[in-house]
Amino acid sequence: MKASARIVAAFVALAGASGIVFAQSDASQAPKSAEDCLKSAFELAQTAESKKLADSQLDKIEALLTKMESHCDAKQFAEAAAVAKDITTAIEAK
Q1: Do the Cβ atoms of 91 and 53 come closer than 8 Å?
Q2: Nearest Cα to 29, choosing from 71, 82, 73?
């Protein structure tokens, strides 16, 4: 499975398991709940997939998404927002 497909598949599985409904959110602010945090992570995963990035970039993004998810689960929203910025930087890197 390509890295981009793995990223989104992982978050789709997470969404199904937790019953999360995804919606657009403002990624510039720290999320206010675990659900919002995970929504942001999923949106970043979708963005990464749509960019057709190199597998090496996607591997890095996947690791960052895992880190972000851990922060979301621990309700460490400021830390999750910081990782989201790192993910955005990785997505935009050429």
Answers
A1: yes
A2: 82
The verdict on pTM exceeding 0.85 is: no
What is the count of structural domains for the chain? 1
State the helix-helix crossing angle for 3-18 and 55-73, rounded to 10 degrees.
20
**How far is residue 90's CA from residue 92's CA, in Å, rounded to a whole number?**
5
For residue 19, which phi and psi values (nearest 5 degrees)? Answer: 75, 25
16-71 per-position pLDDT tens digit: 444 443 333 444 578 889 999 999 999 999 999 888 888 889 899 999 999 999 99
Domain that holds residue 27: 3-92
Amino acid making up residue 54: A
